[in-house]
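Help needed: design a sequence for this.
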């Protein structure tokens, strides 16, 4: 079986299928409580796999390349800052002489606190966007579960519905807090 070209969503779905097979074996052996636990974990993995598959389908095709390039830029900038900070501490007299000879803005060192602040801000913006998307998609899942529960019976979805609602509330409050924090930091 060739797995090198698998999309990321196939891994949790495959693990869920393995857990379902293990559930059948465990149930055949007579251990109903363990089989029930395995079935619940298989369900969680299926939900994760379907959510990832939904994101794979809804996002543009070049998203993985964009994420890799963004991660390499961020890690490259952090690496450059670490090298610059180390070199600046070791070669401080040399750097001072060079800056006295040619004081121009292009030869001035970047301010590490400002760069760290920009990196922290971009991370907060990314966290804000992720929390918004997660709360929207899980909210849609909660609505679907509500419709399903009202049509076929609440006993199927009630426990999951309660957990998903708490997760949606948590991510929504994180989104609101980050929005307020970023808005307040823009005003300062």
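Sure. Designed sequence:
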């Amino acid at each position: 079986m060739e797995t090198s070209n698998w999309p990321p969503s196939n891994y949790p779905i495959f693990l869920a299928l393995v857990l379902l097979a293990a559930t059948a074996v465990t149930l055949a052996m007579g251990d109903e409580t363990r089989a029930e636990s395995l079935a619940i974990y298989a369900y969680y993995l299926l939900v994760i796999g379907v959510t990832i598959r939904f994101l794979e389908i809804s996002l543009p095709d070049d998203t993985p390349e964009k994420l890799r390039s963004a991660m390499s830029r961020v890690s490259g900038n952090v690496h450059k800052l670490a090298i610059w900070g180390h070199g600046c501490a070791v070669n401080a007299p040399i750097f001072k002489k060079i800056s006295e000879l040619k004081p121009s803005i292009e030869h001035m060192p970047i301010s590490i606190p400002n760069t760290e602040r920009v990196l922290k801000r971009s991370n907060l913006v990314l966290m804000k966007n992720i929390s918004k998307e997660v709360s929207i998609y899980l909210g849609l899942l909660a609505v679907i579960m509500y419709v399903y529960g009202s049509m076929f019976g609440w006993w199927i979805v009630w426990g999951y519905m309660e957990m998903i609602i708490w997760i949606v509330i948590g991510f929504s409050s994180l989104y609101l807090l980050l929005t307020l924090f970023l808005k307040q930091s823009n005003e300062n």
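Residues 81-99, 101-105 have pLDDT under 50 and may be disordered.
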